[in-house]
Design a protein that fits this description.
Number of domains: 1
Largest sheet: 7 strands, mixed
CATH architecture: 3 Solenoid
Strand content: 25-35%
Structural class: alpha/beta
CATH topology: UDP N-Acetylglucosamine Acyltransferase, domain 1
Helix content: 10-25%
Order of helices and strands: HHEEEEEEEEEEEEEEEEEEE
Shape: globular
Mean pLDDT: 94
């Protein structure tokens, strides 16, 4: 890699630098750990283009890179300290729980290229899914309806519906529920 040759040309942030700056300011207040008001977080996300269903609970300390690339279905929960690093779209279905400390990562780099090119891929989390605490979901992953991702699992490939995904030390195990 030659990081001095890295460029973000071709990557569209989706909004102007002014809108992104405003989002960072609003985010700092609405998502502060001392702010107990869920409605302020939901309203802030909607104001900046997120599609948020009814009855959604978003805990303090959540980080969202680009709200205009976020969709959350009805009655879903997003736990404290979740980081939605959505350079590409992230969709979370209805009645799903993304537990505290989870990292949803839509971007990676092509380490085989000298220019370390950015590559982004959407994440889709189905309905009635539970992503347990401290899990990591990687670029391009789809987690099927009714699936469970266990505590601390790193998910690097899609999880079929109604399966349990668990893993440690770089291995990912799938089994029917």
């Amino acid at each position: 890699m030659k990081l001095s040759r890295y460029r973000t040309t071709g990557f569209d942030r989706g909004r102007s630098a002014v809108v992104e700056g405003l989002w960072l300011c609003v985010h700092a207040v609405a998502f502060a750990r001392v702010n107990p008001i869920n409605a302020s977080r939901v309203a802030a996300l909607r104001l900046f283009g997120a599609r948020i269903g009814s009855g959604v609970v978003i805990k303090p300390g959540v980080r969202v890179k680009f709200p205009w690339r976020l969709t959350i279905g009805d009655h879903s929960w997003i736990g404290e300290s979740v980081w939605i690093d959505n350079l590409a779209p992230v969709t979370i279905g209805s009645d799903s729980c993304v537990s505290q400390g989870t990292y949803l990562c839509t971007g990676t780099h092509d380490w085989s290229r000298e220019t370390f090119d950015l590559a982004t891929h959407p994440i889709s989390i189905g309905e009635q899914v539970w992503i347990a605490a401290r899990a990591t979901v990687g670029p391009g992953v789809c987690v099927g309806d009714g699936a469970v991702v266990t505590l601390g699992t790193v998910v690097t490939r899609s999880v079929p519906p109604a399966h349990i995904c668990s893993g440690a030390l770089g291995e990912q195990h799938l089994q029917p529920k």
